[in-house]
Amino acid sequence: MRKLRYAIYGLPYYISISYWRKNYKNIITTFFAIFGLAWTFVEAANHFKMAIAVPETTPLSFSLLLLIGFVLSLLINFPKLIHIVTIADTDIKVELLVANYLNLEGDKVLSTNSTFDTTHSDNFISPKSVQGQFYKKYYKSISHLDNDLTNSLANETPIMTLNRTKSKNQQYSIGTVAKLTHIKNAPFWKVWSDDIEFRSYWLAMADVNEFGKPTSNFENLQVSLGELWQFVATKGHLENLIIPILGSGRTGINEKRERILQEIIFSFVAFASENKTRKLTEKLTIAIHPSDLLKHDINFYELCGFIEFTCKFKSSKNFGRSQGI
Fold first, then answer.
1. Predicted model pTM
2. Are residues 290 and 179 in the same domain?
3. Which of 195, 253, 200 is nearest to 222 (CA)?
4. Which of 25, 55, 76 is the last residue of a domain?
């Protein structure tokens, strides 16, 4: 069932111009390899008079061979939508996955602003943002979410008190994490299962003005990720951790999504490798929304290579942040 969902996610990308522009050479090469192999087999069978049923070469059989070769080449080059690597010298896995982050099971990370504002008035928090979608899926009222956030931040000290009338005034440092606990009903086909408990980690990554305009940068991402891993290592629950492309949308980080994904991978692998006594999670799943794959020309295969390289050579003294695939 899971693989079927991934195939469905991949269909829009499969018929996109972006996919064909990147992969038409691979498809053509695969087609000729399949066709050549089949033709060689037929010729060899005829030459050695092998006792097998080799159809007579006719326009119809030739066309059928071409069609089979073409279909097989398309199937072989169907876009890769999942890649899993184990970090060297650990049993922690890093999974790169094309899927809707909200539909995955596990503890979830989402970025927010440093005042932990939640209001949707005047589009302060966009309903289209990850935070807006998360609220719609798991909460019935803003007051409920605000109460959860307030309780979670009770032991955190604000760095500043603002003077606003339409939003919150307690501002926290970049990298502050609020951990919330949620209960959701088990799927209807699991009638005998208990309700599912999971946690969400709300990560302050951007300052926001009184109009809801965020201000953030790549350094905020780096600082926030370090604080997140530290928090999860100390107060987490070893559940699978799911993270989207942080800061790529409404948070306002002006970097390509591939660069953000690379930083998430590098930061996590570095922390997991250097902190063997404090395990963060069994698996980190980095979720790329199918629409991001289409709109922003993300090269999934290059990211798979980056994960392989990072997980294998993360201990190398010559491996720095400026080095890539």
1. 0.81
2. yes
3. 253
4. 76
